[in-house]
Amino acid sequence: MKTVDVDERLIPLLPLVQGLAELLGEHCEVVLHDLGEMPHTIVAIEHGEVTGRAPGDVPTDLMLRTLRRSAADDAPSFRVYVSTGKGRVLRSLSVPLRTADGETYGLLGVNMDVTDLVQAQRQLYGLTAGAPGQTDDAADADEIFSGDIREVVDGMIAKILAEQGKSPAQMSREEKMEVVKQLEERGAFLVKRAADQVADGLDLSRYTIFSYLKEIRRQTGEDYESAGDRPRPDARLTDGDRSPHEDGPGTRR
Length: 253
Known about the structure:
Layout: E1 2-3, H1 14-24, E2 28-34, E3 42-46, H2 61-69, E4 77-83, E5 89-98, E6 104-113, H3 115-128, H4 136-139, H5 149-164, H6 173-185, H7 194-202, H8 206-220
Antiparallel strand pairs: 1-3, 2-3, 2-6, 4-5, 5-6
């Protein structure tokens, strides 16, 4: 196993990192972060070739956002599809590690490369799509059952990406807007804060998602202000919600 100096509280987890990697196989990266070493948080990693990382490397922007949003939440952060700079598609799980006092000192991450599975799913979708004349309701038999509405929204995003056959890193602005349009049509934005999940899944800012929705609803004649998931008039913009004029260089849309 590739490691660097490790906080003694993380030492008991080193065999778990190695064991999970052996269990899940070479397409699954398992990584352990020591937040006390920010920004070089990675202290142990198996199958780092999945993301091209090694011990001593830094966290991703998604991990930083995950840590900030889940500061008061003990639940693991689960993302069905997350794109990487390589244009691959990952299934990710992040588990914050906390002391009894609630201090977050580490994070265990699992990143499984499912790009080939997504492509295969697209082929299967083409072979099993509804026959001519069949209604959308009849063809859409794979209903998502979950006790967590976030998993339902993640599943909706995953379905549409599988149908597109591309990762967000490979999509143009128009293609990403089409994904948002399909999510809108399928009712995803009836869920509070669904825009945050969609923004994460498409590598966009929350502000950009709302901009897309406003344009889509204007085209369809729907009143934007009557929509379920929209920015509050009195809400302040955070770093993740800045307008296009406020973004720094290299901001992706």
